[in-house]
C-alpha cells in the first residue's frame, strides 16, 4: 500500500493506564456510599486545622493512585474543593494539595485533565506558581534552609501538575499562553544550580508546551533563548544535568523558528552535540556502577548509624514483599505503575537510582527528538499508510486523494542537518541503542526490587531507538550508512533482534518498533536490488508471530515485509517454493483477518509478489491464486460496503477502495495470463 510514513514521536502520555470516561460512569453508582474514603477525606479538607487539611490532601494523593477510586472523588467535586487549597495559608497544605491534584491528573488520564481545566484549576495554580517564584530567593536564605516546606518544593509539585494538564489538554496550553506562564518556567529553569529536581520538571513542561505552539514562539524573548543556551553549554557531568540539557535541546528545536538563520545553524550544532553525548553514554555499564555506588553509600551510612549492614538490604526488601503479598497487595504496587509522573514515587535520598533513571530518560528523549527531526510535521501517529497512487474511485469523490496526497510526502533533510547528524555519528549511536539492553544491567535490576522500575525504561529506550532508526532510514542518504554492505549489516542486526528471544515476539511495543524499522530497511534494499538477509524459515516464523499480534500496525508491517521480500524473490530463479509459502500466508490472512486494513495490506502484498515473473506465475498456479481471489472478491466488496464507513477513516476508506479496484484489475491480469 505504498511506502510507510515516518513515525512522529509525541510527548509520551504520562498516564497510559488513565481512567476512561466509561470507567467513571460505570463506578459512579458504586461510589455513592457516604462512608467511602472520598467522602471522608474531602470533608476533612474543610477542617480549621492545617494538620488535618494536610493529612487529607496527602491521603487523597495516595488513594487516587488506585484508578478505581478516582470516580468517587470526581463525583464529589474534588477538584473544586482541593483547588483553593493551592493558596492555603499553610505551606504544607499547599504542597500536599498540589501533589494530590498532580496525582489525580496523572492517574486519571486525559479526560480527567480536561475536566480539571474546565473547573478552572489553572487559576489558583497560576497564582501559586507566581507566588512560589517570588519566594525562591527566600528559600535559599540561611534562615529558610532546613525547613520542610519551601517555595521550591511547592513549585515542583505545581509545575508537574501544569505539565500534566498541558500534555493532555489543548485548552490548558491556550491558558498557559494567555496567562504568560512561560516566565514562571524560566524562573524554575534558572534554579538548576540550587534545585535540579525543580529545573528538570520545568524543562519537561517547557518541552511539552513549546511543541507545535506558534503563539508561544512569537512571545519568546532573548532571555528564554539565553537560559536554554546556557543550560546546553553547562559542563556538569551528572545524569540529571544530561537530562536537563537534553530537554533544553528539545525545547530549542521546538522554538527554532524564532531564531535567525545564523542562530539556527549554531543551535542545530549545539543540539546535535547534546544528543550525541546523551546517546554515547553506556547505560549497561553505568547502571551497575551506580548500583555499586549506592551499596557503598548505604554501607557507610549504616556503619555511622549502627544500622543493619547494607548487604542485608535485599533481604529486607524481600521480607517486605512477602508481607505485602500476605496483605493482599501487589509487591511494590506504587512503583509498578507505568506512569512515571506520580508524586513522590522516587525518594530524594535514592541519589544513584535517580541518576540511573535520569540517564535512561535523557536517552529516550534524545531518540524522540532525533526521530522527529527526521520526520514530516504533517501526519499524526494514528494516520494510516501513504495514499495509494491508483486511479480515482467512488470513495475518493470530491478530490480527497488530491487534497491529501501531500500528507505523506517524504521528508528531505536539509543538507546542513544531514551533515550535522552524520558528523556526530547519530545514526550509528541510534543503531547501538536499538540493541537489547545489557544482560548485566537487566539481571541487576530484576534482582533488586527498588531498581526494577528501570526495566521498562531500558526496553523503552530500545523501542524508541528502533522507531528512530526507521525514520533515519527513510530520511538519510543510504550511502551515508555504508551503502549496500552497511544496509546489510543493519538488516542482519534487526533480524538478529527479532529471533534472539522468544519473549521479544510477545512484546507488542517492541514488535511495532522493530517491524517498522525492518519494513523500511527492506523497502530501501529492494529498490537498490540489495539481496535480502532473512531465510524463508525465519521470514515465515517472524510473520506468523507478528500477524497474530493484536496491534493492527504490527500485522500491517509484517504483511508489507512479506510483500517486499516476495516481490524481490519473484525476480530471482528457483524461488517458486518460497513464493508459494508467502502467497498462501497472504491469502490466508486476507480471507480470515477481521480488520479490513489488514486484509487490504495482504491483498496489496499479493499484487506486488505475483505481479510479474516466471517464478511468480508458477507459484500462483500452484496455490490456485486466481480461483481463490475470485471467490474472495464478492465478500470483500460486501464487507467494505457494510463496515467501511462506520469503522474506518476517510483516508483508510480511500485506500481500501483503491485496493478493491486493483483487485478487479489483478484478477483480469491473472485471467489473461491463464489464456496464454
Automatic annotation (TrEMBL):
Signal sequence segment: none
Residue ranges occupied by any SYO1-like TPR repeats domain in the UniProt entry: 415-673
Chain intervals with Basic residues compositional bias: 1-11
Region (Disordered): 1-40, 300-342
Classification via InterPro entries: ARM-like, ARM-type_fold, Armadillo, SYO1-like, TPR_SYO1
A Gene Ontology molecular function term of the record: unfolded protein binding
Gene Ontology process terms (BP): animal organ development; protein import into nucleus; ribosomal large subunit biogenesis
One family name in Pfam for this protein: TPR_SYO1
Basic and acidic residues composition bias: residue spans: 300-314, 322-342
Matches recorded under SMART domains: ARM
PANTHER family associated with the record: HEAT REPEAT-CONTAINING PROTEIN 3
Annotated family: Belongs to the nuclear import and ribosome assembly adapter family.
Protein name, as recorded: HEAT repeat-containing protein 3-like
Native source organism of the sequence: Carassius auratus (Goldfish)
Biological classification of the source: Eukaryota, Metazoa, Chordata, Craniata, Vertebrata
Amino acid at each position: 500500500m505504498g511506502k510507510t510514513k515516518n513515525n512522529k514521536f509525541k510527548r509520551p502520555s504520562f498516564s497510559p493506564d488513565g481512567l476512561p470516561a466509561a470507567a467513571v460512569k460505570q463506578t459512579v453508582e458504586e461510589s455513592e456510599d457516604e462512608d467511602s474514603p472520598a467522602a471522608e477525606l474531602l470533608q476533612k479538607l474543610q477542617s480549621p486545622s492545617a494538620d488535618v487539611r494536610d493529612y487529607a490532601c496527602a491521603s487523597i494523593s495516595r488513594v487516587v493512585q488506585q484508578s478505581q477510586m478516582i470516580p468517587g472523588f470526581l463525583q464529589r467535586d474534588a477538584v473544586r474543593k482541593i483547588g483553593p487549597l493551592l493558596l492555603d495559608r499553610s505551606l504544607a497544605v499547599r504542597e500536599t494539595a498540589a501533589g494530590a491534584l498532580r496525582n489525580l491528573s496523572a492517574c486519571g488520564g486525559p479526560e480527567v485533565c480536561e475536566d480539571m481545566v474546565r473547573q478552572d484549576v489553572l487559576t489558583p495554580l497560576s497564582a501559586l506558581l507566581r507566588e512560589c517564584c517570588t519566594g525562591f530567593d527566600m528559600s535559599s536564605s540561611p534562615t529558610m534552609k532546613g525547613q520542610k516546606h519551601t517555595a521550591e518544593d511547592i513549585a515542583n509539585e505545581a509545575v508537574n501538575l501544569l505539565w500534566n494538564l498541558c500534555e493532555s489538554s489543548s485548552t490548558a496550553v491556550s491558558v498557559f499562553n494567555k496567562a504568560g506562564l512561560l516566565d514562571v518556567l524560566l524562573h524554575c529553569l534558572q534554579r538548576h544550580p540550587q534545585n535540579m529536581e525543580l529545573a528538570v520538571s520545568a524543562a519537561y513542561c517547557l518541552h511539552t508546551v513549546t511543541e507545535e505552539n506558534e503563539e508561544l514562539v512569537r512571545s519568546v524573548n532573548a532571555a528564554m533563548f539565553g537560559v536554554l543556551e546556557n543550560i546546553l553549554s553547562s559542563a556538569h557531568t551528572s545524569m540529571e544535568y544530561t537530562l536537563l540539557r537534553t530537554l533544553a535541546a528539545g525545547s530549542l528545536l521546538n522554538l527554532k523558528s524564532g531564531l535567525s538563520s545564523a542562530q539556527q545553524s549554531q543551535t542545530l550544532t549545539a543540539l546535535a552535540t547534546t544528543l550525541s553525548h546523551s546517546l554515547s553514554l553506556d547505560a549497561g555499564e553505568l547502571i551497575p556502577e551506580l548500583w555499586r555506588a549506592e551499596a557503598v553509600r548505604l554501607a557507610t551510612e549504616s556503619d555511622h548509624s549502627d544500622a543493619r549492614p547494607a548487604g542485608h538490604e535485599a533481604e529486607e526488601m524481600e521480607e517486605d514483599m512477602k508481607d505485602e503479598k500476605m496483605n493482599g497487595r501487589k509487591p511494590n504496587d506504587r512503583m509498578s505503575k507505568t506512569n512515571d509522573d506520580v508524586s513522590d514515587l522516587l525518594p530524594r535520598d535514592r541519589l544513584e537510582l535517580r541518576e540511573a533513571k535520569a540517564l535512561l530518560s535523557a536517552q529516550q528523549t534524545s531518540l524522540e527528538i532525533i526521530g522527529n527531526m527526521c520526520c514530516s510535521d504533517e501526519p499524526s501517529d494514528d494516520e494510516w499508510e501513504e495514499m495509494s497512487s491508483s486511479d480515482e474511485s467512488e470513495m475518493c469523490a470530491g478530490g480527497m486523494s488530491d487534497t491529501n496526497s501531500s500528507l505523506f510526502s517524504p521528508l528531505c533533510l536539509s543538507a546542513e542537518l544531514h551533515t550535522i547528524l552524520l558528523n556526530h555519528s547519530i545514526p550509528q549511536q541510534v543503531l547501538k541503542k536499538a540493541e537489547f539492553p545489557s544482560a548485566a544491567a537487566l539481571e541487576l535490576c530484576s534482582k533488586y526490587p527498588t531498581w526494577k522500575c528501570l526495566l521498562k525504561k531500558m526496553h523503552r529506550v530500545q523501542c524508541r531507538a528502533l522507531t528512530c532508526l526507521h525514520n533515519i532510514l527513510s530520511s538519510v542518504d543510504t550511502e551515508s550508512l555504508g551503502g549496500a554492505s552497511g544496509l546489510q549489516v543493519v538488516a542482519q542486526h534487526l533480524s538478529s533482534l527479532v529471533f534472539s528471544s522468544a519473549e521479544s515476539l510477545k512484546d507488542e511495543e517492541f514488535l511495532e518498533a522493530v517491524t517498522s524499522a525492518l519494513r523500511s530497511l527492506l523497502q530501501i534494499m529492494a529498490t537498490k536490488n540489495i539481496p535480502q538477509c532473512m531465510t524463508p524459515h525465519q521470514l515465515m516464523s517472524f510473520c506468523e508471530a507478528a500477524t497474530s499480534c493484536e496491534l493492527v500496525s504490527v500485522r500491517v508491517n509484517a504483511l508489507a515485509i512479506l510483500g517486499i521480500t516476495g516481490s524481490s524473490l519473484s525476480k530471482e530463479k528457483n524461488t517458486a517454493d518460497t513464493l508459494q509459502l508467502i502467497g498462501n500466508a497472504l491469502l490466508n490472512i486476507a480471507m480470515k483477518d477481521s480488520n479490513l486494513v489488514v486484509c487490504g495490506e495482504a491483498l496489496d502484498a499479493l499484487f506486488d509478489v505475483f505481479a510479474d515473473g516466471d517464478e511468480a506465475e508458477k507459484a500462483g498456479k500452484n496455490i490456485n491464486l486466481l480461483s481463490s481471489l475470485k471467490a474472495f472478491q464478492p465478500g470483500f466488496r460486501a464487507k467494505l460496503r457494510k463496515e467501511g464507513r462506520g469503522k474506518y477513516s476517510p483516508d483508510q476508506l480511500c485506500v481500501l477502495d483503491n485496493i478493491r479496484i486493483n483487485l478487479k484489475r489483478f484478477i483480469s491480469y491473472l485471467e489473461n495470463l491463464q489464456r496464454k
